[in-house]
Design brief:
Keywords: ATP-binding, Nucleotide-binding, Transport. By secondary structure, the protein is an alpha/beta fold. About 30% of the residues lie in helices and about 25% in strands. The structure holds adenosine-5'-triphosphate.
């Protein structure tokens, strides 16, 4: 269980986390929010790579502000940062082995077995001896996940893990994360509402460093209930609409004349919530 209370972080006088209160439990929680909402800052506080200015994080009863407890917590978490910053000349195996050394897996034989295990878990056994610079974007992202899985962490923190992946790689990644969420706490930041709908049992929307929504993906979609329309004509005056593959216009907000109401998706609810659309 992870408890976050009254968490604050300020940059240049601007609150990026503004008194955040959250409790996170097992399963997959998705973090959505516009650019600059504070998602990465929150994840870094959870991952113990950034100290908050105020408030508290407790994960599994451990306080990352206390050095001994911080070390204990680091052993129980895996972190896939937004820019993993890999060494391009390392092989996949050596890179994960290097992180394993940093994580203090000191016994060489056990460490190598663990590196092989995590590479197999992300289906990169065949690329163990391939240099990082020769891996595709999807493979690199799976490698980033592999290093986060070292030591079987109870808490997995993934910052925009599917960014830049093609649909096939995204599906593969989704399947992996879904499996991992079965027996641990996964917190995943993303801009992909489809990933949230497909993977997460809970979604938290951050806006200006505060929780703007906390519920299920279905409940987030429900924010736009009765406000999503299909129209044969391009609607005059509507701010958000687009032409769909069947030639009709999908309109968010007030009803265009003669339009049919249609069930909302997570993206519709999110757009309504963050105020991109006014009813
Ligand atoms: N080290 C820093 N120094 C100054 N400002 C920072 C620093 N790190 C983050 N910020 C600012 O804090 C705000 C929140 O950043 P953060 O990366 O947490 O947002 P985010 O929700 O993850 O955004 P994105 O979706 O773009 O990744 C942004 O305005 C960012 O510019």
């Amino acid at each position: 269980m992870i408890e976050i209370s009254d968490l604050t972080k300020t940059y240049g006088g601007r609150p990026v986390l503004d008194g955040l209160d959250l409790t996170l439990g097992p399963g997959i929680t998705g973090l959505l929010g516009p650019n600059g909402a504070g998602k990465t800052t929150l994840l870094r506080c959870l991952a113990t790579t950034l100290a908050p200015d105020g408030g508290a994080v407790r994960a599994f009863g451990l306080d990352p502000g206390v050095p001994m407890q911080r070390t204990a917590l680091r052993r129980r978490l895996g972190y896939l940062p937004q820019d993993p910053g890999f060494y391009p000349h390392f092989t996949a195996f050596d890179l994960v082995d290097y992180v394993a050394i940093l994580k203090e897996l000191t016994d060489r034989r056990q460490r190598h077995a663990e590196v092989r295990r995590v590479l197999a878990e992300v289906e990169l056994t065949g690329q163990s001896r391939t240099k990082v610079r020769k891996l595709s974007g999807g493979m690199r992202q799976r490698l980033a996940l592999a290093q986060a899985l070292l030591g079987e962490p109870d808490l997995l923190i993934l910052d925009e893990p599917t960014v830049g992946l093609d649909p096939e790689q995204r599906m593969l990644f989704r399947a992996l994360v879904s499996r991992l969420g079965e027996d641990r706490t996964v917190v995943l930041s993303t801009h992909q509402t489809e990933d949230v709908a497909a993977l997460c049992e809970r979604v938290i929307v951050l806006r200006d460093g505060r929780v703007a929504f906390d519920g299920t993906p279905g409940e987030l979609a429900g924010v736009a209930a009765g406000q999503v329309w299909l129209s044969d004509e391009a609607p005059a005056g509507a701010r958000v609409f687009w032409r769909t593959a069947d030639g009709r216009y999908r309109v968010l907000g007030g009803p265009p004349p003669g339009a049919d109401v249609t069930p909302p998706g997570v993206e519709d609810g999110y757009l309504m919530l963050i105020g991109e659309v006014t009813a």
